[in-house]
Design brief:
The chain is of the alpha+beta class and about 80 residues long. The chain has 3 helices and 4 strands, in the order E-H-H-H-E-E-E. The strands form 2 sheets. The protein has a two-stranded antiparallel sheet with strand order 1-4. Strands 2-3 form a two-stranded antiparallel sheet.
Length: about 80
């Protein structure tokens, strides 16, 4: 049987801080945010130019409701060769 990582599909306008506070309350907020971001590089590394920002055109990495957000690190499993 495959072991699945605990994950969620975030709410509209979810933030790293809000997810951290809700799902990792035992950790310091900054530490929890850092953990979430390290487990979700597919989201954290995404850059979107914010059209509404000032002339510096700052970029952000928003969490989208269509994302799958992992709430724990990858499981270590033994990989067996096929055949």
């Amino acid at each position: 049987m495959k072991i699945l990582r605990k994950s969620i599909t975030p709410a509209l306008n979810a933030t790293w801080e809000a997810v951290a506070e809700q799902h990792l309350p035992a950790l310091d907020r900054d530490q929890a945010v850092a953990q979430l971001q390290s487990w979700n590089l597919h989201i954290f590394a995404r850059r979107v130019v914010n059209q509404d920002s000032d002339s510096s055109r700052q970029s952000s990495n928003p969490i989208l409701p269509s994302d799958i957000l992992f709430l724990e690190p990858p499981h270590t499993q033994r990989v067996e060769a096929l055949g």
